[in-house]
Write a structure and sequence with these properties.
By secondary structure, the protein is of the alpha+beta class. It contains 15 helices and 23 strands.
């Protein structure tokens, strides 16, 4: 009898620290070093999708090197997991290497029925031993899998092979989050990695999996090629060949797209995209716009241990003086969507009825008048008897953040607050916020599941030795965050999440900014393209015959 998962067990979120406006949003395009040779047509163009990537990944095993492009190239293409997300909201779980799973003992015991007849790309059979081996390596402190280990280890009590195609995991306690960690855990072959150092294995550069595509070639700094796996257990991929072509310069990538040498440019700066389509009739004819909403949120981080921010009226005033709408519309240029909640906007539990704070200097001044007067007439208000001055940390590489911070600085000055902008290199920035040695800055959360778990970032227990860098503390928020981590009933959990989102907004735990988006260009000969979680599912795309618009 086929086992099924109760709908109650449906959320997991791993939150990773990220800088909200670094890299492509910094306003400084990468150099052209290492760019691909311009004239190198892809083989079998009609059956090949050429994807632009802007960096050369360090390796192709995300467990060891959780590089964004390594994940996007290999996850659910070369490597597979026990589970994956369905392609449409609310992104429920579906079987991949597991066909079914049973939850017992009030959510603590998970028994997986594994798919039969699956073979690794070298022909060896996939069994439950490979699942055990994968978990063994992840939980081994000598293996450089810290981020995945931090996700799984707090939950797992033990696990065991029950047969060639049955596997059991016993959790320390019931959690609605654990199952949603598994789509991000690629299963690796025991027979390949068993007797070697996983940290330095040659297969980190030539992955071998069970997925719809098999690895063919990696020419460092040039391209990575995957081909359709003819022996795949499931529905065969329509596109025969995926070529991920490294082109560091976005301008060079647009030139190659114009010449028909790239089919998919998934991440371009919004201004480049607009001017390219406006000025290039060939690009407009051959390509259409596409956009991916990244699973994460950016926000202004406040140090709640600073006495100047202790009064909620002050925090609300600071929020009212930040014109987020202008930042998103005029500075981000199509690469962000404004948010009102610290939950990811694609989270099914995100409260769409929570409205973003409006830009309202008059209301801010009214609030400030009640708590911070300018008693000596020097133009600077006093809070607790001290001039209202603070420093805003920005990552030095992010020009966009510095631009909008300057606008914010001017609005604060008009209201009687003096803010100094301090550019800081990323390593020093991270060190400072970990020590709570800052006043204000920007951060973000990246979610590895479509459900938001804010415990690590905002629970008071995480302030001294965790990721609650703002040292936010509210007993009711603590209670809700802890309850959400235990609640197995999705309706109750959604209600708790709604209360939490409204509480964090009213308390101004942080100032929500935006969710980043990745605008790009996609060849019109591609069909079935869908932006899903966590990225595009290339194995489901199809190519039409080369049309007149594609002919050279």
């Amino acid at each position: 009898m086929k086992l099924s998962i109760p709908s109650a067990t449906r959320c997991f979120s791993t939150n990773l620290l990220w800088v909200s406006l670094v890299g492509v949003l910094a306003g400084c395009p990468p150099s052209d070093r290492g760019k691909a040779t311009a004239k190198e047509p892809a083989p079998g163009k009609a059956s090949t999708l050429v994807v632009h990537i802007d960096v050369n990944p360090p390796a192709l095993l995300p467990t060891i090197h959780p590089d964004q492009w390594a994940v996007r190239i290999t996850s659910h293409n070369v490597y597979e997991a026990l589970l994956r997300y369905s392609p449409n909201p609310p992104y429920g779980l579906e079987g991949e290497l597991a066909t079914a799973w049973k939850i017992e003992e009030e959510g603590r015991v998970l028994t997986f029925e594994l798919r039969r007849g699956v073979r690794w790309h070298d022909g060896k059979p996939f069994t439950a031993r490979d699942v055990r081996f994968t978990l063994d390596r992840i939980l081994d402190e000598k293996v450089r899998a810290a981020s995945t280990r931090a996700t799984l280890a707090p939950h797992i009590e033990r696990y065991e092979v029950l047969g060639p195609h049955r596997f059991r995991i016993v959790c320390k306690k019931a959690s609605p989050f654990f199952l949603h960690a598994l789509p991000a855990v690629p299963i690796i072959p025991e027979h390949i990695f068993r007797d070697s150092d996983l940290n330095h294995h040659p297969r980190l550069r030539s992955p071998l999996g069970t997925g719809p595509y098999r690895f063919v070639r990696w020419r460092s700094g040039r391209d990575i090629t995957l081909e359709r796996h003819k022996g795949y257990w499931g529905k065969k991929a329509s596109i025969e060949r995926l070529v991920f072509r490294v082109v560091r310069s976005p301008q060079q990538a647009l030139r190659l797209a114009h010449r028909g040498e790239l089919d998919f440019l998934p991440r371009l700066h919004g201004s480049q995209l607009g001017s390219a389509l406006e000025n290039d009739v060939v690009l407009r004819r051959r390509f259409r716009r596409i956009q991916h909403v990244t699973p994460g949120t950016s926000y202004v981080l406040l140090n709640h241990r600073r006495s100047m921010f202790s009064d909620v009226r002050v925090r609300r005033a600071l929020s009212l003086l930040l014109d987020v709408e202008t930042i998103v519309t005029h500075l981000m240029r199509g690469q962000a969507k404004r948010i009102s909640s610290l939950y990811w906007m694609g989270d099914p539990d995100c409260d769409q009825g929570l409205r973003p704070t409006r830009f309202d200097p008059a209301a801010a001044v009214k609030l400030l008048d009640s708590v911070a007067a300018d008693s000596d007439g020097d133009g600077i208000r006093e809070v607790g008897g001290k001039p209202f001055r603070f420093t805003f940390f920005v990552v030095a590489a992010s020009r966009t953040t510095r631009r909008w911070a300057t606008i914010y600085q001017q609005q604060l000055k008009k209201a009687g607050i003096e803010m100094t902008i301090k550019p800081v290199e990323w390593a020093a920035y991270l060190q400072a916020i970990r020590r709570h040695d800052f006043d204000m800055g920007t951060l973000g959360m990246a979610f590895s599941a479509p459900y938001s778990d804010l415990y690590l970032q905002f629970h008071s227990s995480q302030a001294d030795d965790g990721q609650n860098y703002g040292a936010y503390s509210n007993p009711e928020a603590d209670r809700l965050m802890a309850a959400i981590r235990r609640e197995m009933d999705p309706k109750k959990r959604r209600a708790q999440g709604t209360r939490l989102q409204h509480l964090l907004a009213a308390d101004v735990a942080a100032i929500p900014l935006f969710t980043l988006t990745e605008p790009g260009l996609l060849s019109r000969r591609v069909q079935g393209a869908l932006s899903t979680f966590p990225w595009y599912r290339l194995a489901s795309w199809r190519l039409t015959n080369v049309s007149a618009a594609q002919k050279r």
